[in-house]
Amino acid sequence: MNASTPTTVAGERTPDGGCRTIDATALKADLVRRRLLAAAGAAAVVAGFAGRRARAAPAAATVHTVRIDAFAFQPPVVTVDLGDTIRWRNDDPVPHTVTAKGGFDSGAIAAGGTWSYTATQRGRFAYICSFHPTMKGTLIVR
Fold it and tell me: Does 106 score more than 70 pLDDT?
């Protein structure tokens, strides 16, 4: 059979009870067109979901580090976004605290130790070391 020979489609009947014949080339072209449309539709759906997911996903939280060194918080002011984590690392040979009145309190952070806090409230928080009150820092949560 060549490409232009009409083909009988099994199981399809005409209204008068005969078999319907179609051109094999037209059948192949229709099949290719349907497959292309299905592939394009699937690609559009996938792209649409991927785009929505990218827009809907919240920004990843960031971890910020504040060093406690030479009896000072470095940096003395840290600005973070809501949900970010701040980690204080004590590089001094003595314990320190990170204490914000009415906000947060690390308790004693041993020499070489760390303490972390996740920002859950927007605002400006002044903090000190309760053992060494001249040590001051500020956390700004936007």
Answer: yes
Q: At 85, is the pLDDT very low, low, confident or very high (cuts 50, 70, 90)?
A: very high
Taking the complete model, does pTM exceed 0.85, yes or no?
no
Q: What are 35's two structure tokens?
A: 């497959």
What does the pLDDT look like over 58-71, one tens digit per residue?
Answer: 678 999 999 999 99
Which two structure tokens, joined as six digits, stand for 86?
A: 């701040």
* Dihedral class, residue 99 (left if φ above 0, else alpha if ψ from -120 to 50, else beta): beta
- The β-bridge partners of 78 are 139
Q: Please give the Cα distance from 89 to 83 (Å, whole number).
A: 19
What is d(CA 24, CA 33) in angstroms, rounded to the nearest whole number? 14
- Residue with structure tokens 């308790």? 107
Q: Where are the beta strands (DSSP E) in the chain?
A: 6-13, 19-23, 63-68, 73-74, 77-80, 85-90, 99-100, 104-105, 114-118, 123-128, 136-141
Residues 107 and 89: beta-carbon distance below 8 Å: no
